Amino acid sequence: MTDTDGPLTGKVALVTGSARNIGRNTALALAADGASVVINALEDEEAAEKVVWEISTNGGQAISCLCDVTDRRAVDNMVGKAVEELGGLDILVLNASQRGQKPFTEMSHEEYRRVIDISLDGAFFLTQACVLHMIEKGWGRIVTLGGISWHIGTKNRVHNLVAKSGLVGFTRGLAMEMAEHGITVNCVSPGFIDTERPASAGKRPPLKVHPPIDRMGSPVEIASMVRYLCQPEAAYITGQTLHVNGGMYLGG
């Protein structure tokens, strides 16, 4: 249930790729803490509106917006809509991505660029559109979504690994610049999570290495970490990559 007096009451959150999986669960979690939420999808309006309905049914406030995050004009329009209809922009969760899977020797440049552009150009456009609103208020939370693959190496996913490693650099650099404005920037890096996979992601590869917590994680468990990083009490955490992977990768 949404708590109208929750820790994020009065805040506005934009969660990209929030019609399903980790994004959807993150949007629901932030709404449960009182935030108004922009639900974003590329083209599945029905799925996005379903998340809006879930939040509204529990007493929260949400709007949906279809937007390709690689289109700067569309991104600016989406952020403008959030500010106009919800009153501002305080939290940005950069979750949108494309999980391609193809051997490097068979990968076209277009396929390579599309995966990278969604993660990196999307992060650039969205953050530039949002961050001035946060600076004006002297408070903000930006969370990027990384992944275990680039930390441990994965076959047939060079484009994904390049994109996710770039997001970590983006996170660290931005954290240094935004700290003086009361804005934290962190990366949540999921392990193997039990999500619905689109056709473009290919068949889920077999789990060759089992984590100490011997199961797949759930989208709710990733959303819980994002949720914590958006709380007022997380103000001393910035520039970090938080690994949620059952102990498969311990960082370092």
Structure summary:
The protein is α/β, with parallel strands linked by helices and 252 residues long.
Key phrases:
252 residues; alpha/beta; Rossmann fold; 7 helices; 7 strands; 15% strand
Question: Any overview of this molecule?
Answer:
The chain has 252 residues and is an alpha/beta fold. The protein has a single domain, classed as Rossmann fold, CATH 3.40.50. Helices cover 42% and strands 15% of the residues. It has 7 helices and 7 strands. It has helices at 21-32, 45-57, 72-86, 109-137, 149-152, 158-178, 219-229; strands spanning 12-15, 36-41, 62-66, 91-94, 140-145, 183-190, 241-244. A 7-stranded parallel sheet has the order 3-2-1-4-5-6-7, with helices on both faces. The longest helix is centred in the middle third of the chain and has 29 residues, at 109-137. The chain is globular. The chain starts with 11 loop residues before the first strand and ends in an 8-residue tail after the last strand. The model has no long low-confidence stretch (mean pLDDT 93).
Q: Order of SSEs, N→C?
A: EHEHEHEHEHHEHE
Relevant CATH superfamily: NAD(P)-binding Rossmann-like Domain
Low-confidence stretches: none
CATH-level-2 architecture: 3-Layer(aba) Sandwich
Helix and strand composition category: alpha/beta
Query: What number of structural domains do the residues give?
Result: 1
Query: What distance lies between the first and last C-alpha atoms, to the nearest angstrom?
Result: 38 Å
Radius of gyration over C-alpha positions, nearest whole angstrom: 17 Å
With strands numbered from the N-terminus, the spatial order across the biggest sheet is 3-2-1-4-5-6-7
Report the major sheet. Answer: 7 strands, parallel
From the spread of the alpha carbons, the general shape counts as globular
CATH fold-level label: Rossmann fold
Helix content: 40-55%
Mean pLDDT: 93
With helices defined by DSSP (H or I, 4 residues minimum), what is the helix count? Answer: 7
Beta percentage is: 5-15%
Number of strands: 7
So what's the CATH class?
Alpha Beta
